[in-house]
Predict the 3D structure of the following.
Amino acid sequence: DLAIPEAKGIYTISKTVTQRLETYNGISSTPLYHPPALAGQYYTAEYGDYILSVGRLDPNKRIDLLIRGLKFCDSHIRAVIAGSGAIRNQLEKIAEENGVKDRVEFLGFVPDKDLPALYANALAVCFPPIDEDYGYITLEAFLSKKPVVTCWDSGGVLEFAENGKSAVICNVDPEEIGAAFDTLYHNKRQAKELGEAGYETVKDIKWDRVIDELTKTIR
């Protein structure tokens, strides 16, 4: 807390983190967005029949909302979950208890080289974490021109996702989330339009701007 205010420039990864720094430390800062690691490798193919989840299987990611949401949408809609973590067994149990075990595919750890194709063929990406700092998943989805289904309390996700324009933002309610999946599945033109709008939101987030901003005090 003593050293940070003396810096010539103070930056964070998102508006969410900037707000926290101001609220809890009384320090002003500037959000500076950076691209995900595989930027430039994402592409778009089909708007398929699965909702994609990528990331750690961790309680604060709320992947259970995706699984529970499958009860409330067309039975042809699947969930593909890429990632490993401590609650996999718990999530598998939730899928079984909700009668959707046969519609949920747990891929475990997925190498970087395989991620772009998973995004490219998804119908949408479900990313409803609690108060996320930044959320690469949002950017990865939009760079793949896929809409995001998220929640109103998902923090940094909402700095990019706009309800009805690039995303469907829901209450923390599996039924509402399932209805969002259903709408996108039965109107893939809308899914495509939302995804394309998301791409326009994030396409200019590049390392060149980050480097220019961080080095301006020494030039």
User: Anything to note?
Assistant: The chain has a mean pLDDT of 95. The first strand starts at residue 11 and ends at 12.
